[in-house]
TrEMBL record:
GO molecular function terms attached to this record: oxidoreductase activity
Organism this protein belongs to: Nonomuraea spiralis
InterPro entries listed in its UniProt record: F420-G6PD/mer, Luciferase-like_dom, Luciferase-like_sf
One Pfam family in the UniProt entry: Bac_luciferase
Residue stretches making up the Luciferase-like domain: 10-294
Superkingdom, taxonomy of origin: Bacteria
EC number: 1.-.-.-
Alphabetized Gene3D superfamilies for the sequence: Luciferase-like domain (3.20.20.30)
The protein's enzyme class: oxidoreductase
Keyword Oxidoreductase attributed: yes
Keyword Metal-binding set for record: no
Name of protein: LLM class flavin-dependent oxidoreductase
UniProt keyword terms in alphabetical order: Oxidoreductase
Length: 327
């Protein structure tokens, strides 16, 4: 199972330094999200700061850019990284698309299928000058004058629901899990939907918090669990783990005015233990081993919700140290 990492930085300079440290430690891929920064800009920073690791978006929002724009950015990032780029796409949720970005939310599974098809058609044919036909794309009189590293850039899809998960297994080069994904959930709910085939990459994401005092490690991760538990969309996920009542407590606190980053105090230890890799270094190693045979790679990330920047830095340093020990 390959060790990959989602570096963190309060500044882009710190993000670059974190990426170099993770590469030196042995991380096989470095992933960047899209929420507080543009995933594409962050990926460009990582491409310039590293020389060996793959650089991936986990994830870039699929519907807030046109497929052509996404394809152009992917080609540029693949050139910038020397053929190391992985395009990870996700749909996001309705509120994020409609209220934050002003784009329509309609049949996301079908739209994701069409988006991936259009990106692949464009990256494969943009150098020829021939017409490009794809769902939602009709291009005439266009020829990219620059060389490309690859005509086909790997596309991974993030998915939580069963329909999008099945689509990832059907058309994607890989699947990326939600930040909370236990071995049991991966085994019993996700893999049966993926129809994993040779060469298909299963990437499980895990919030990781390491400290000599397990209680300190859990406390750091509790805020991230609370952040996601406040979203009712994930009710089925929490119910699968027998955490429906615990999620309801978090949602109630959120509805009574607590901020999404201020919910750690209503997250019980059981939630953190089931859904994150938190504890001493030895305990985290044991939890990592539970994913063997289920995932091709694990994406470790430090907690970033409900904690200070300094606490995230400490957590990041411990994860990179662990990657170095294991790699």
């Amino acid at each position: 199972m390959r060790l990959t990492y989602g570096p963190w930085g309060e500044t882009l300079s710190e993000l670059a330094s974190s990426a170099r440290a993770a590469e030196d430690a042995g991380a096989e891929t470095l992933w960047v999200p899209e929420l507080h920064r543009s995933a594409m800009v962050s990926a460009a920073v990582l491409a310039g700061a590293t020389t060996r690791t793959r650089i991936g978006t986990a994830i870039a929002l699929a519907f807030t850019r046109s497929p052509m724009t996404t394809a152009l950015e992917a080609l540029d990032l693949d050139e910038l990284s020397g053929g190391r780029f992985v395009l990870g796409l996700g749909s996001g949720v309705r509120r994020l698309n409609e209220d934050w970005h002003g784009v329509a939310w309609d049949k996301p599974v079908a739209r994701m299928r069409d988006t991936v098809a259009a990106i692949r058609e464009f990256t494969a044919g943009c150098r020829t000058g021939d017409p490009i036909e794809a769902p939602g794309m009709r291009i005439r009189g266009y020829q990219r004058p620059f060389p490309t590293e690859r005509a086909r850039i790997p596309i991974y899809l993030a998915a939580v629901g069963p329909a999008m998960t099945r689509l990832a297994g059907e058309i994607g080069d890989g699947w990326i899990s939600h930040e909370l994904c236990s071995p049991a959930y991966l085994r019993d709910r996700v893999r049966p939907q993926l129809n994993v085939r040779p060469g298909f990459d299963v990437v499980v994401s895990a919030c990781c918090s390491i400290d000599e005092d397990p209680a300190v490690a859990r406390r750091r991760a509790a805020g991230l669990v609370g952040f996601y538990a406040s979203v009712r969309t994930y009710a089925g996920f929490f119910a699968f783990h027998g955490l429906g009542a615990e999620q309801a407590g978090v949602v109630d606190r959120f509805r009574r005015g607590a901020g999404a980053d201020d919910l750690a105090d209503v997250v019980p230890q059981r939630m953190v233990d089931l859904l994150t890799l938190s504890g001493t270094a030895d305990q985290v190693r044991d939890k990592l081993a539970a994913y063997e045979g289920l995932a091709g790679a694990i994406k470790l990330t430090p907690p970033t919700h409900g904690v200070s920047s300094e606490e995230t830095r400490v957590a990041q340093d411990r994860i990179i140290e662990l990657i170095g020990d294991l790699a």
